[in-house]
Amino acid sequence: MSNERRITLEINGAAETTSVPAHRTLLEALRGLGHVDVKCGCEKGDCGACAVLLDGVAVDSCLTLAWQAEGHAITTLAGLGTPERMHPLQQAFADLGAAQCGYCTPGMIIAAESLLRRVPDPSEDEIRVALSGNLCRCTGYTKIFDAVAAAAAVMSGKGDAR
Amino acid sequence: MHSDFDLHLAADLDDALASLAPAAGEAGRPAAMALAGGTNLIVDLRGRRARPRRLVGIGRLEGLRWLRVDAGGIAMGARTTVTDLLESPALAAAAPALHGAARVFAGQMVRNAATVGGNIACGSPAADLVPPLMALDAEVVLEGPAGTRRVALADFYTGYKADVRAAGELITEIRCPPRPAGSANLFYKLARRQGDAITVVGVAVALEAAAGRCRAARIALGAVAPVPLRARAAEALLAGATLDAPAIARAAESAAAAASPIDDIRATAGYRREMVAVLTRRLLTRAWQAIG
Ligand SMILES: Cc1cc2nc3c(=O)[nH]c(=O)nc-3n(C[C@H](O)[C@H](O)[C@H](O)COP(=O)(O)OP(=O)(O)OC[C@H]3O[C@@H](n4cnc5c(N)ncnc54)[C@H](O)[C@@H]3O)c2cc1C
Ligand code: FES
Ligand code: FES
What distance in Å separates the CA atoms of residue B41 and residue B122, rounded to the nearest whole number? Predict the structure, then answer.
């Protein structure tokens, strides 16, 4: 059965074309195109390491088929900021020690960004509920919640990232 | 991963229904399956528990994504997501049972993709939106090759992961009747953790009261039988009664007797049955107090 097709994905503002079969997940397609800032953990929706923004809303790219993402704006961690020009979430995660091995960090920041776009000034409870689909085996989460709160304060002009 | 399938991303409802309709001679392996949020189906393809010939994506059917909470009741399109439920203050006020289930559902990324229709159609006994919707007396609107029909959610499931849908039928809407003044509804999910965990026992209750007596009660149980179910005998004990502690305790025991749980890695059958009684008692007590 020939079910392979050329698709064009809009990734971090740039159009990229690739030929993939119907069963190829967005996670596999993105990493295949070199976007290895999208991490592969469980491939079944449990860990959140593969989170990307689809039209500004965080989804697990391992539960999305690549064909389904055509026509939607995909944003990965690298699309939020660069080491030279960090996004306030990236800056806060670095400053507050919210990353240890760093494997969960891209998904954590994407999930947090999805929250902050809808709720600019979240309570700690809202941060916890928004990150409950992201597993971290290193940090114990406390510093991650602190970093999201600090970034929210910076982004809404209420404080600096310490 | 099961890979031997065609994927068609339907442009609209007619296209989806035409693509899902079984073609002649496609018996045996399920011919076509709808793909909504994919949070169950992609995992099942990966585990080869689902092996369809064709997937029909319904993600572009924006007409199936809406939520209405008003004097006519609560109604929603099948593609309404769990996040859509969570972000509706009107739903939180009218149906704390359903809103509460959305709050304890999975994690953010799954909630952003997971749909109400997919939660009902996946047939899991632990599907968290189903007990609240049953307690709210929901009916499901089905559209398929033979037209449109409505089925009470309480009559939807026919056995473990089996339901009344004919081949090619899509869930398009879910509707709950208006709640009279003097009513309350609540849900509790018991799980190993508060976040992102599979339900060990889920209980939803809805009460309607008038002149100090219970006019109607609905109790729905999740994860304690092959299908989510109503505890009809317990409901009958409450109708017409004043809900004092002994009446509530009798109903709670009756609800526990309606459960037929199993032992698994999350809990034993005995624990589950005991927790049905405890949670039903607590929820009935709180709902009765809320009506005042
Ligand atoms: C990490 C993780 C955590 C989860 N946590 C929870 C949880 O806490 N509580 C819970 O209840 N569930 C949970 N789930 C299960 C799943 O997210 C839900 O059941 C979800 O509602 C399924 O919806 P979907 O749109 O993703 O369905 P899909 O995966 O797209 O489809 C599921 C099934 O429904 C069928 N289907 C979908 N839409 C329709 C329709 N409109 N008409 C007819 N058939 C249809 C499909 O053909 C398929 O058989 C979890 C899943 C994951 C991966
Ligand atoms: S890799 Fe997608 S959620 Fe774990
Ligand atoms: S920092 Fe290592 S998994 Fe989170």
Answer: 8
